[in-house]
Design a protein that fits this description.
Layout: E1 15-16, H1 26-29, E2 32-36, H2 37-40, E3 46-53, E4 63-65, E5 70-76, E6 78-83, E7 86-91, E8 95-98, E9 107-109, E10 116-123, E11 130-132, E12 140-141, E13 150-151
Antiparallel strand pairs: 1-2, 2-3, 3-10, 4-11, 5-8, 5-10, 6-7, 6-9, 11-12, 12-13
Amino acid sequence: MSLNKPALEAQAVEAVSKSGYPEPYRSLVMPREKRRLGDALGLTKIGINRTTLAPGKVSAMCHWHTAEDEFVYVIEGEVVLRTSAGEQVLRAGMCAGFPAGFADGHQLINRSERPAVFLEVSNRDAEDTAYYSDADVDLIWNPPHARGRMTRKDGTPY
């Protein structure tokens, strides 16, 4: 059965495997595969990605957003959710949410031996800034003085 928009088969959306992180952070997340479902459906207010995370990789550096809510829903496999409160395992059927402006960094880690698949959902806000909460991660995404770019915590560009 073929589908027509507004419906689609998620696996039919092109898988993108790239990262905007500079090294040494890029190698911690790659390879990972994102299928940009929201873009494929023409959504402009929310982003939805179907992400496949390889064993031993992290979804992102531990971060939080000033203006974007984030939601993740595990479809297959398992990941470890890391926040300032500690770690917990999320398995298929489990989810987590991160309110905008709540300065509690989060990341997903695949410590299993097989790929994990999850949905990432967030609103899209051009004024959003992502702060990276680990002391040894020298990043800020989209700061007010450098919209659309990654900088170091002191504001200098990569």
